[in-house]
Amino acid sequence: MLIITCPWCGARPETEFRYGGEAHIARPADPSALTDQEWADFLYNRTNPKGLHAERWRHIHGCGRYFNALRDTVSDFLVTTYKAGEPRPENSRPDVEGSGR
Amino acid sequence: MVESPSVITPLAAANPLTALAAVSRDIAAARLAALGDAARLAFRGREAAIGPAGEAFGVALPREACRFNAANGRFAFWLGPDEWLLLVPDAEPAPLFAAIEAATSGLPHSLVDVSARSVGIEVAGEKAAFVLNQGNPLDLSLGAFPVGMCTRTLFHKAEIVLVRHAPDVFHLDVWRSFAPYVWELLEDARRELA
Ligand SMILES: [Zn+2]
Predict the structure, then answer these.
(1) Distance from CA of A15 to the nearest CA of B (A)
(2) Structural domains in chain B?
(3) Per-residue pLDDT of chain B (194 residues; tens, 9 = 90+)
(4) Domain limits of chain A?
(5) Which of A2, A21, A81, B171 could form a disulfide with A14 if both were Cys (CB 3.0 to 4.6 A apart)?
(6) Cβ <8 Å between B65 and A15
(7) Are B186 and B162 a contacting pair, CB within 8 Å?
């Protein structure tokens, strides 16, 4: 089981959370001005990186808050979490071995 | 045609744990008790409404995550940064509701009477934390989960609000239709302690 650190509640078991997809995707301010391709990009196309991924999680069986996490998609290691609205952290990228966990 | 029963039982009057509690064994290391009725209010609000709501309730709403405040038999449990459960055992919700509504009138907030939504269970005894850990992976040592802490979490597959009132005394608030599920799994977890 993953241990995920909610920015409000601290370290909690994975079962208290729901995944919320890629983070930092802003809804276009004026959707009607977009081409179909641009709208499809907003709706469906994601970066799907091999490595660090900024993504939303919700502490649904805890404080109920959405927050963001940086997760390594290769190791499934959650590098850090931060509150919604905060910028993606500049990251020195600790790995599983260096984390002490 | 199937005739529907004509007897309507008021929800609040029927505790779903009455029958289970009546046949429950007394195990001193982890006693189980179905708690009585309580007034429960779900309060959500932004900064301006938080102070007045606490003043009207008589207990300041805690701003520290996962903590509760208590005074004169009233409890304010932090559930989220803008969400609290206000609980008063053995009380009518209506006067509390009216007082908080009056104090927060005109301020953006939400106040809902959820008194009949859930029921309370007490788990008490030196093995209380051990029993809870059969269905919940939180670290319940006193350092990690001190007296005065509360949180929404899971017991097996049911969402609960878990509260530590004393080193060996925990309260669970569980939605009423999940209550027998939680109760019987607690019974299962403490069976070996008899
Ligand atoms: Zn949380």
Answers:
(1) 8
(2) 15-36+117-194 (3.30.1360.120), 38-114 (3.30.70.1520)
(3) 555 555 555 554 689 999 999 999 999 999 999 999 999 999 999 999 999 999 999 999 999 999 999 999 999 999 999 999 999 999 999 999 999 999 999 999 999 999 999 999 999 999 999 999 999 999 999 999 999 999 999 999 999 999 999 999 999 999 999 999 999 999 999 999 98
(4) 1-24+50-94
(5) A2
(6) no
(7) no
